[in-house]
Amino acid sequence: xxxxxxxxxxxxxxxxxxxxxxxxxxxxxxxxxxxxxxxxxxxxxxxxxxxxxxxxxxxxxxxxxxxxxxxxxxxxxxxxxxxxxxxxxxxxxxxxxxxxxxxxxxxxxxxxxxxxxxxxxxxxxxxxxxxxxxxxxxxxxxxxxxxxxxxxxxxxxxxxxxxxxxxxxxxxxxxxxxxxxxxxxxxxxxxxxxxxxxxxxxxxxxxxxxxxxxxxxxxxxxxxxxxxxxxxxxxxxxxxxxxxxxxxxxxxxxxxxxxxxxxxxxxxxxxxxxxxxxxxxxxxxxxxxxxxxxxxxxxxxxxxxxxxxxxxxxxxxxxxxxxxxxxxxxxxxxxxxxxxxxxxxxxxxxxxxxxxxxxxxxxxxxxxxxxxxxxxxxxxxxxxxxxxxxxxxxxxxxxxxxxxxxxxxxxxxxxxxxxxxxxxxxxxxxxxxxxxxxxxxxxxxxxxxxxxxxxxxxxxxxxxxxxxxxxxxxxxxxxxxxxxxxxxxxxxxxxxxxxxxxxxxxxxxxxxxxxxxxxxxxxxxx
Length: 526
Prior knowledge:
This protein is of the alpha+beta class. It is built from 19 helices and 21 strands.
């Protein structure tokens, strides 16, 4: 029994145990084989195709294809290059990477996941708690039955009736089933930090989504380019903006540069540049002075405002759309309008949850109109707009006051109060914030794609627990009946006890055998 429990625990944590004894460290241009324990932050390690990535770090040279399904649940390998972050417990499928060490050993993301999983496995499920209570409550009745049996059927029957106690079997079956489902969830990129979530999810009847960063991507997209200067095209305006923003790391700059590249627009050389954090950037491109930034930046610079700019600005503010102004030689030449990007998987996930009969709502800090529009696009009837972060928990509390069991899906850090208030809390922040994330469940691939899988696992878990309970209790009931009416003795009682135990054990282990063939070695072939 203890071997089976230990194996289940080992399976749970072995998901993230890829760690070599030696690594290749780059020293003065040469590769030296170095014990893993001797690595320090700032060292550069060399990882070749087919090798596990041993540290959390940043790529300083090279490019390659990385399989990180063990960490995030993503089925497809990701192409990694200079500047990208990589994590231990992932596998380099092709290429060669030079990685600067940031974290190793117990401080890595994988080590944090193992720590969380070990803690999670120690939570007692509701079924297990019921089993423990049943075991405690059945001691005196069991002794009483044995005492009654003694004068009626003799010593043999009295001793045999003691074998009807099923508390131990229920506890063991519950523990193994819980660990196995945590393992299955981890394989799908779902990190469950509180084992009681598997119990609570079956009672959830309302799911509340935060809008920004949850139903929509963190990066917006360019919806429209407004040209306000004569003799200037959309492509020319976008090229000026992309050239100015080329080396800026913030999301809007990345979107503008990506849009220019997508259109095949050449970027120009910049002679000089100055950047004001939070406002905008000013660059010299050839003989022209180009400013790119917010409407406040345009006003601050004292630029000429063409007709139509204020109307566009007002419309964007009403719709909560982002606006980036582009000025050339002291005159606002155009405006780039950016809209939030709906997650590609959002509609399918929402449809799946609606089929489960769940009540769905959206909470957003944005204006009413964009929130209403998104809710309509997803087929969600209830939405709350203009909501401050501290008021999100109030809305969840109101739903709970109506008798709802609420699951909140949002930002694992910024929505901490709402996540704590919800009966079940889910975060999309991914692997890098496990230590600070207050959510009970973290979707490791930073998408909603596994949300429906989580609800399916909870339903299967409930069925497994119920079946395990019956398969362990029924032999005990048969044993008591057999003692009084069929002359059962010690051997028959022991056989029934073992039958109940191994039947329950089979129920607990069956999810690993039938749930997903990838659990037995095919995962690495994706």
